[in-house]
User: What shape does this take?
Amino acid sequence: MSDLYQLKRTPFHERTSALCLPQNWRRWAGHIAVGSYDLTLEREYWAIRNHAALIDVSPLMKYRIEGPDAMRLLDKLTPRNIAKLAIGQVYYTGWCDDEGKLLDDGTITRLAEQAYRLTSAEPSLRWLHMNAVGMDVRITEHTDQVAALSLQGPKSRQVLNRVCDSPVDGIRFFRMAENTIAGRAVTISRTGYTGDLGYEIWLDAADALPVWDALIAGGNDYGITPCGILAMDIARVEAGLFMLDVDYTAATHAWIEAQKSSPYEMGLGWAMALDKPGFFVGRSALEREAAEGPRWKMVGVEVDWESLEQAFGAVGLPPQIPSMTVRASLPAFRHGKQVGYASSSTWSPVLKKYIALVHLERPHYEAGTRIELEVTVQHQRCRASATVVNLPFYDPEWKRA
Amino acid sequence: MSSSSRYDAIIIGGGHNGLIAAAYLARAGKKTLVLERREIVGGAAVTEEIFPGYRFTEFSYVVSLLRPEIIRDLELPKHGLKILPLPSTVTPLQEGDYLASWEDHDLTRRELYRHSPRDAEAADEYSRVMARAAKAIKPIISLVPPDPASLSWRDLRGLLKLGQYGASLSPTEICRIAKLLTQSAADLLDEWFEFDPLKGTKSASGIIGTFLGPRSPGTAYVLLHHYMGEIDGAFRAWGFAKNGTGGVSAAIASSARALGVEIKTSAPVSKVIVKGGRATGVALENGDEFHASVVMSAADPKRTFLQFVERQQLPGDLVTAVESFRVRGSSGKVNIALSELPDFTCLPGEGPIHRGAISISPSIDYIERAYDQAKYGQVSSEPYIDMVIPSMIDRDMAPPGHHVMSCFVQYAPYDREGGWDDAAREAFGETVVSTIERYAPNIRRAIVGKQVITPKDIERIAGITGGNIFHGELLLHQLFFLRPAPQWADFRTPVKGYYFGASGAHPGGGVMGAAGKLAAQEILKDWK
Assistant: This one.
């Protein structure tokens, strides 16, 4: 009974809790999740960029959508052309309300002819059911039944090749395949939230511990490292990947219109299949926006290091760099006028740059635009010069290779 | 006492609204007198030691909507006001299971998910939609209601403001509000949820203080009322006051006295003295007179318009409107002194269940059936009960190791068939104890003392005609510019210098204090 007074634990809890020595726990979709396994993030971050980081991503909301109308439902719900999604392929997508404002984002995996898996950050069952009225489709939430691990880093393929029954070399970017680890059936998709080479492993929650153990044992030679969500939070900013409730607000959560975001504003124009036939939720609003161009856009911004040095140097300090991703809103200026705000900013250990995901109003969002970002220097608000750049900040060639 | 006492303003009734109005008037420099019938102030917001060592929040028992500006303006924290959190609601079920709503969103979701994954998700959206609707409707509540039939500049300005505000709402919001104002709680909840105990528990807040069932139209609005506190964000208006609701009254009285208000208790008013169509003072039942250029009644609408002044001094339509104002008391209280905590079969032992509300509301049918009996003059044989254990939230409420439990019970009709006598009161208490016993079998042996309050007792002790906890039901036809009567919703009366500011006035009750404050503001406007 007392269990019900606590947040949920993931299927890997027995392993992760034994390793989480600093007791750095975070909250993720009603679960406790490891923030970091060390007191600092360095080792875990570099595992993502240099070895293979093993991240428990089980709290992701997961839905199984199956039946003759499964494709129709997803095609109606999302702006992507689901008819083109092949069996074994994964789409990343956002989805909108009728006004074309984002509700959530996640991946859709086609598991079989008439079966899909949808992941989301927020509960979506009600939205799915409402849109499935009159369709021959079965929707099951199986967040708790399906455990998920993210194995990210340049060595992740080698780790999987060692522990899986069949090699994973054939799995292309955003594809998935069935496999076996430690005698347990798993699905492996070449996806992730780090912008590196990486895979996500989906398995029955009951098989969580043997699969974890097999990965740790088999991955040891490749530097496999359990990694918390804080190191991943740095990697995802480098990869230009945004996060619900941090970089945008779901339209259903917004109190006012200004809090809502469209997919175009979030840089998801590439995922808008406006040429697909038929109705989908938000279509007319999105068509209008596509024609007019978005009013806002989330872009990458690199802060000039010299400018930071100057600002801090003026009071006799070296630049003070936060050790994890900052989720506070920082005003962005151009020609002395506020033109937007940063929603996530972080020091990039691999790029040696201070980078931010910044929302800028038209016409200030073109790459190359010089702006200023607010920094606090010894309790004083200052502005550091910065440049708008294309996302992602970091895009290693092995990500898609 | 001689008849020469002169004040700037006299307030009839020392309940929280009367005290608040007095404090605001004194703050504006007016010499103000409060006359209270009983020997203590507080009205229906009192804490009394009925059994030695056990302090009962006799009538109102939680503080929902006490306005933050009143707390700030009157410096109530300096005068001892503390609103302690009342974080959860647990609905025990017959099968030994329960439904809980905890303070933490994720835990509540996890709990709901256990019963219905769909409801768990819908609940998130429902509370956001309701909070947004509450946000949209709140500015309306904060305004002095304009009278659409009047052509005075003040009313027109108010209407214009309301119109401008209405135009700023999106069509979706307007439709949602229109629906919320007309729907039944049951219809609204059926649109969102499937799990019966969830619907029952949520619907209960739609019927509190009304003589309606969850299937009666208009009850959805009362649900919305409960989201008003939530949109103040971190302010967290829902809670239990230190020392009970009597603690709220004591803090306001202390603040009022510090501002120079004079409070006389055991001073029942018999009538307002009217000379040449103007109120000039009041007369007590013992014949004493007090004089002032302004008199405000913080009593219920019936007493205010039909008892304190002669009917001949009022327009006939107003008399008719007040006569037909619905004040049907539908609820009672059973306050219990306990030697041990009730031990709930569904969650045995002491735990978080005891720190929040415990609701006997297993389904909408259960409550509607309870209402069916009340419609025809009977006490519900299986009533809706909202229990709170104040001694778990504020240890000063009971002796160490012992507890007090406040049970709000609906339905107990004011017009009980056969009337209310000691035997009927006893039977009512027994119905409540045996209902609780089904969920907490140790309750009977834990009872040290029991105070049963019927609607007649609310009328007799707190002086509220009809015994309705809101001085008049929160029905749509009794709200805004219709509360308490058409054209007289601006805290004024046809008698010059005679005002009305209590729960039966706009915007209604719930230990909110808004009516008292708004009335004082109107009085001060007229003074200029």
Observations:
- Chain A is about 20% helix and 35% strand.
- Chain A has a mean pLDDT of 96.
- The CA atoms of residues 23 and 37 of chain A lie 8 Å apart.
